[in-house]
């Protein structure tokens, strides 16, 4: 919105007069506590804006006419209060102070109502005056809040005014209310400047270009021909004739004060990033404009310094703390020059303390290094080589057992033995027989993560694509998500490589094979009952179910298998992403090769292709590692026909046992996890992948057996609805969701390239 020239000039004039008045206030505040005979005489000669604010006083022929509510600051012999008629001069009053604040409020509201546009490049004087006014106003409010005994001083002033004039100060209630409102200025200022956010923001955003240009180092200026004396003569005059030349005279300190004061206090932006030049000349870097204020908080600064010394990775940055003390002088406010000696003493004290501690830590490191070098040199002394020579002489003699108390000494140089990184990551043991990272991570995930998952302390969350920890009071906190999310699986694949991931997969499949072996034993124990359950009608099934033993054990072991297979799928996904990043030219052909496999393809060719795809992390309809593990765990005493029969009855056992889960309170479906509270949702993956692998080993139809499983499981759950005991129906809906997962992952319907097809159909 464009303002009329006369109206705009009036705003600019009032803005200039207010800034001129505020320029003299620091001198008054400095003289007020130090001069006992000080009298504040706001005459037209001392304040050009006096006639604007108080036209009646300016028009009076007697300049020394007292203001209403004035209070003498003159000190005398035993007299702290004097009558205004005796002093004959005007005194500083709350009426005058509140009038100044009223003019500031009125001007800011008028500017917002007029929709003035502020840009440092277009209207330099108006924008600079507006920013100066806001910063000065904020500084005065903060200065008032820093006075610790402000309430006491105001109370004394009110009492003195009543004693000298017989009436209270008219503006005292307003001033007292303002002091109460600004008890916490950091909260009050953003609320007060809420209506002025648009004007303040536009003015601050216009500083971006000159501020960033000012923060560039000399090398960038030379590259942009800003400091070159070899350029054309005509280009040297172009900055002078530009409209934004006035911006170049703004000091960096002024712009930083505008940004920090107005962003932190008016716009409620904590720690606004201010850019300052790097000492190394590598361009601007982010720097918190409020860092020098750390001098007012020495204890937190010392704690951070101690934490830096305790963290080895942060030791190299410890020198920043003594360097920070050099910036404490920037905390001095123009209105408080008496703080400089205290700031200087605090800076020197902290700097000396930090340097002493750094010297102590550095000397300790040097002494430790010297001691280590001394020990290494001691190992080379002749007295230590006698044992080696003696062992070499009697090498052919029978080895004598070491004497008790005789320590085994390492040969000099063993500490410099280097290990091959390939052996360290891709194999379970290195050249010296020590466990590698692959073995360490494999053991940890099996013994720590998956073992806790089997006990219910860790749950699989499909929504988070990670394992999560169930909080328990009696156990220390352990965040399973920090070790099993997508990024951690990528990092694991990056660290141990494809051979390490294959070793991890083989160990996981070995545990799955062990669980399947135990499940087959339970099936053999209940063979007769399971055969009858497979062939009988639905109404005959309730009479046969009580004959089954260890049904809960079967469900528990199948859940453990599902947890292991789910973790392996997450690890394979991480391997696939890493492999795609490192070898994208190989991932494409491998994925295409896996897609061309059809049910008519020979089973051995199919398994070979799936093994190649699985090594790259590509998911397959039939897991070749699981097929290999199950084939290796087949019982020698059992014929292939009997083993196939046991595999079929295993699915029957699981199907007729599912209704038992409905009575478990932990089987409730949790939408936040997208799973059940006892990990029974892992049963779906176990049923689908285990069926595909088992019947691939026996060259049987996978789809037929999965349909049989769903038929038995669904009929068992339907019969559960006829139970008179409602406690057994508690989580029936949650178990029905489990069957939905089996049908979804099984892809029943026979689309090409899915487990629903007749792989290995005979």
UniProtKB/TrEMBL annotation:
Residues 392-402 have a biased composition (Basic residues). One of its GO terms (cellular component) is SCAR complex. Residues 391-435 are annotated as: Disordered. Residues 403-430 have a biased composition (Basic and acidic residues). InterPro entries: Nck-associated_protein-1. It holds the Pfam family Nckap1. GO terms for biological process: cell migration; cell projection assembly; cortical actin cytoskeleton organization; neuron projection morphogenesis. This is NCK associated protein 1 like.
């Amino acid at each position: 919105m464009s303002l009329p020239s006369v109206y705009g000039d009036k705003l600019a004039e009032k803005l200039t007069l207010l800034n001129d008045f505020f320029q003299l206030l620091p001198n008054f505040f400095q003289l007020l506590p130090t001069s006992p005979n000080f009298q504040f005489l706001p005459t037209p000669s001392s304040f050009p804006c006096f006639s604007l604010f108080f036209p009646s006083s300016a028009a009076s022929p007697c300049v020394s006419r007292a203001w209403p509510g004035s209070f003498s600051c003159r000190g005398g012999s035993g007299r702290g209060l004097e009558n205004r008629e005796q002093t004959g001069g005007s005194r500083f009053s709350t009426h005058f102070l509140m009038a100044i604040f009223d003019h500031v409020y009125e001007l800011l509201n008028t500017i917002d109502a007029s929709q003035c546009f502020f840009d440092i490049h277009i209207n330099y004087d108006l924008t600079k005056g507006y920013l100066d006014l806001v910063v000065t106003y904020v500084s005065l409010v903060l200065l008032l809040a820093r006075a610790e005994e402000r309430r006491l001083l105001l109370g004394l002033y009110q009492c003195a005014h009543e004693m000298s004039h017989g009436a209270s100060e008219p503006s005292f209630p307003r001033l007292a209310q303002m002091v109460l409102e600004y008890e916490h200025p950091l909260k009050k200022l953003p609320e007060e400047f809420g209506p002025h956010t648009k004007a303040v923001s536009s003015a601050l955003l216009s500083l971006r270009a000159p501020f960033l240009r000012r923060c560039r180092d000399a090398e960038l200026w030379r590259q942009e021909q800003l400091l070159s004396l070899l350029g054309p003569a005509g280009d040297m005059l172009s900055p002078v004739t530009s409209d934004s030349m006035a911006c170049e005279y703004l000091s960096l300190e002024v712009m930083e004060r505008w940004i920090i004061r107005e962003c932190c206090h008016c716009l409620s932006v904590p720690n606004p990033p201010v850019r300052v030049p790097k000492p190394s000349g590598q361009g601007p870097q982010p720097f918190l404009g409020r860092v020098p204020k750390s001098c007012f908080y020495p204890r937190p600064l010392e704690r951070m310094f101690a934490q830096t010394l305790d963290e080895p990775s942060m030791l190299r940055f410890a020198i920043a703390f003594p360097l920070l003390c050099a910036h404490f002088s920037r905390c001095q406010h123009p209105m408080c020059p008496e703080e400089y000696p205290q700031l200087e003493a605090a800076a020197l004290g902290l700097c000396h303390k930090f340097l002493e501690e750094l010297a102590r830590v550095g000397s300790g490191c040097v002494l430790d290094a010297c001691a280590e070098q001394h020990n290494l040199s001691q190992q080379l002394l002749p007295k230590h080589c006698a044992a080696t020579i003696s062992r070499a002489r009697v090498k052919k003699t029978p080895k004598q057992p070491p004497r008790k108390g005789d320590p085994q000494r390492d040969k000099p140089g063993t500490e410099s033995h280097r290990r091959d990184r390939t052996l360290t990551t891709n194999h379970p043991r290195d050249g010296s027989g020590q466990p590698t990272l692959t073995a360490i991570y494999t053991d940890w995930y099996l013994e720590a993560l998956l073992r806790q998952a089997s006990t219910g302390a860790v749950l699989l969350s499909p929504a988070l694509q990670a394992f999560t920890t169930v909080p328990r009071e009696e156990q220390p906190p352990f965040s399973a998500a920090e070790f099993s999310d997508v990024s951690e699986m990528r990092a694991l694949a990056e660290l141990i490589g494809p051979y390490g991931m294959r070793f991890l997969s083989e160990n996981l499949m070995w545990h799955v094979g062990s669980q399947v072996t135990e499940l087959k034993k339970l099936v053999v124990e209940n063979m007769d009952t399971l055969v009858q359950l497979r062939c009988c009608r639905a109404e005959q099934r309730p009479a046969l179910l009580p004959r089954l033993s260890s049904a809960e054990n079967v469900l528990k072991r199948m859940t453990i298998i599902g947890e292991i297979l789910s973790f392996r799928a997450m690890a394979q996904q991480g391997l696939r992403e890493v492999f795609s990043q490192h070898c994208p030219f190989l991932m494409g052909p491998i994925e295409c090769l896996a897609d061309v496999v059809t049910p008519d393809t020979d089973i051995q060719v199919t398994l070979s292709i799936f093994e190649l795809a699985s090594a790259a992390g590509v998911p397959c309809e039939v897991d070749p590692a699981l097929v290999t593990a199950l084939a290796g765990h087949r019982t020698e005493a059992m014929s292939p026909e009997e083993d196939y029969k046991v595999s079929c009855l295993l699915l029957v056992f699981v199907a007729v046992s599912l209704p038992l889960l409905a009575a478990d309170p932990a089987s409730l479906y949790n939408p936040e996890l997208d799973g059940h509270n006892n990990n029974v949702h892992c049963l779906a993956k176990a049923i689908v992948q285990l069926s595909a692998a088992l019947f691939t080993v026996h060259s049987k139809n996978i789809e037929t057996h999965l349909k049989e499983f769903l038929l038995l499981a669904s009929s068992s759950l339907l019969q559960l609805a006829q139970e008179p005991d409602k406690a057994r129906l508690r989580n029936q809906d949650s178990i029905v969701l489990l069957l939905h997962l089996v049908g979804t992952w099984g892809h029943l319907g026979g689309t090409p390239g899915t487990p629903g097809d007749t792989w290995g159909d005979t």
